[in-house]
Amino acid sequence: MTHVLGVDLGGTKIDIGLIAPDNTILARTRIPTHHEQGGAAVVERIAKIADDFARELPAGERTAALGICTPGPVDHVEGKLLTLVNLPGLSQTPLRAMLSQRLGIPVRLEHDAKAAALGDFHYGAGKDARSMTYTVIGTGVGAAIILDGALYYGEGNAAGEVGHITIDRDGEMENSGVRGAVQRYTSGPNLAHRYAQAMLTTTTPDGEPITGEYVALRAREGDPVAVRLIAEAGEALGIAVASMAMILDIELNVIGGGVSALGDLLLAPARAAMRRYTFAALGERVRIVASTLGDRGALLGCAYMARTLLS
Known about the structure:
With 311 residues, the chain is of the alpha/beta class. The chain has helices at residues 39-55, 95-103, 112-123, 183-186, 188-199, 212-220, 224-248, 264-276, 280-283, 297-308, and strands spanning 3-9, 13-19, 25-32, 63-70, 74-75, 80-81, 107-111, 132-137, 141-147, 150-151, 252-256, 287-290.
């Protein structure tokens, strides 16, 4: 194997890493996304970082391929971004072709949750598994399904939309049109909204806006309202995992995103709910664990994707 590039293109920042053959991240930088500048400008700024990294390699070595992930929806076959709510300036951009042409190397494009899933499957919590589901909790709730070592996309590329599984048919409506979805209880903005409602304020004691990260911090500090909301998020997650387990019979379920760092505050109620909503024999086998890669997951998944282009 050789050096490859991993790029995690998000709504506000782009995380770019130079990955060695042993999966060490040799160099890493983050730059603002500025999607409003359009695809050509974003590609050029990524390419300039890639060029800088290449100059740091020993003589005779080069970066051989690039893997890039973005929020969905994406057309991974054509290598094209579709209509993006969080990145409207990049909608309909043929990102794979533009990057490949600019850098002169093969490029693979994938949804960010699927890329992070590949990272954990090959290098993290799932490295000894045959199949795995991956759920990442952040601004939204993304997910991926890996069956017998391969990503499962479904017939319309929509497989794994765990965040939009209904767990309360009388619950509030999501923007997606789904009522009482998992995302309503687990995503960062929804955790912040529910905490603000309970506390009758939209700001912290320091006058800052309440965020999902703040709710997680308060839960770690023992705030009973925050602890309750995180437990409810864990229960919602557990119901979703139970649904997937009953359909897919996959034992390993990995949870990523910043909220996964809460450990048992989130995962203990998730495991308890999963067991309540599955057959006993199945529930005893199913495992819910936190990602072991932290914020490296997407970059390492992109590195794996890049290497598939070289075999």
